[in-house]
RNA sequence: UGACACCCGAUGCC
DNA sequence: GGCATCGGGTGTCA
């Protein structure tokens, strides 16, 4: 998740500056080893607590909406932070949210001291206090740039989720909704579907891939599932998402599938013709990967064609501020953490 | 990891010699994903456990005094062994060795099914069963041609050793021997050297080629240089790397050169005999390219032979998880960037 | 026809 | 930095 990574980096930079010197000094004095001690305090995650490795911390925070964690060089500090915030975060909802849409770093703060730190030195900062996190998120989406939106990570969920149940009467909300509708509006009866795949630790041993299909807000066909099978790769996840999209839509309905995977789209729209001609050999003579999924999709496309329905693909840039892509991404990410 | 190396060599020989089979093999691997599973159990190392790649295994055992590790094709076996249990080593420590000195491909097999496959269709095959690998090696050296001996790769070391240290049949010793064979912690007789060539924009106008030679970590003879001359091609870079390796090693030392360039190895081990006979004409009557480099290498090899030293070549798959190949690759890439 | 390299490019997933 | 994947291409030989 680039967005998460960005946010993580921002937090680390932000919080790391305050007490780094003192901590290092202390540690250097008492320890002979040169390596810096690390403690990852997870205050909001699957299992809040203190972890010693980044891997464990990641496991506790990956895909967790609103995950909150921080690195310390002192165990006691980490414990205190995790414990202290834990109480506040888990039961008491903060009463104030400071949205910093333009600043360094952008994000949502619950403490004015931190928020003011983030806008200090920024020319033309944009920030505002809200009483709900959702409003703060929406403010950042409306007034911040793409990076600021991306930095929200899973929090964008709040804005998407509430779309249907919110009376969008402010200017910002209205225009945002209009933009979304514009993106999704299509000539007549073509169903727009967003697909995405995710694969944590892609290419490594414990990779877990997830599939996301998004038809629209609150649509019952929206899908979030774990990729089946032993090959947990990003490509298989992306292809499978497209497969599911075709399966979920009515057989006789034309669809337009939005995917950020150029690989997947080209597999089923251009490359497959050459592959068939060469007996599923790649241009370099190697056997085509993920042939099973490609063939399934081709079958589904042929079926639709017979029904008189069209299947269109549109590539969308990943991690742009495309709401549909973000929604599908979120579904895929959540699917990856399923059993 | 003796089994791994042996297996890889067998596959390489297989693919290199019989094109039809090689293609099928590839296809099969691709389709039903029956590729041999590998698990590296580390019983004594920095972090004991089971690892999936040789690179990870190396990381856990490198520099660890008394490191103890072993390769398995079954995860459960690997886990059991890592946990200290004695695993019935059926396929990991073979009790029989089938030497195929004349066949297609030649080599040492531990399974009669494979061995019989290698001699099927070959007129006048030469093969024999042994109870030690060393005997099998000696048989091939005695009854096979040069190519067959070369195909033995590092296993020729077994024959170079004195008869006294035979029967290295326990798991521990097999492991240790594997390390000697494959990670080139040589037994003093043969210096293992990795070579590689790089050529950015190969075949285009502004191509820049580099040469890499790797003797070992921190070895002062490691070389990274820009390819000299106006012809900046990958092939010249690969050949030059071999040339440099021979120049850098002591004149009277036997060496084993690991290269991923089948072209280079065949140039100096098989094709050159025909070229000499035809007056350096290719089989199609064209003049042989890179003759200057090939002749230089042949001269260096002849010189070593006169000194009583052996020069052996072993092909290694490029971009695989071979640490030596990766190291040489980096040196070559670096060299290509030089002035 | 085959084989092994050496690249150039593209999009994701980390 | 790496993997997942594909498309173009040259360097060279049998």
Model description:
Two copies of one chain form a homodimer. The first copy, chain A, has 339 residues and is an alpha+beta fold. Chain A folds into two domains: 39-160, Ribonuclease HI, Chain A (3-Layer(aba) Sandwich), CATH 3.40.970; 168-336, Nucleotidyltransferase, domain 5 (2-Layer Sandwich), CATH 3.30.420.10. The first copy, chain A, is built from twelve helices and eleven strands. Chain A has helices at residues 2-30, 54-61, 75-90, 112-119, 133-143, 146-151, 156-162, 171-184, 234-248, 262-277, 291-306, 323-336; strands at 39-44, 49-51, 68-72, 97-102, 107-109, 126-130, 191-200, 208-214, 223-226, 255-259, 311-315. In chain A, the strands form three sheets. In chain A, strands 9-8-7-10-11 form a five-stranded mixed sheet. Chain A has a three-stranded antiparallel sheet with strand order 2-1-3. The model of chain A is unreliable at 1-40, 53-69, 71-96 and 157-187 (pLDDT under 50). The A-B interface holds A 205, 230-231, 285-289, 291 and B 23, 26-27, 29-31, 33, 52. The structure holds a DNA/RNA duplex (14 and 14 nucleotides).
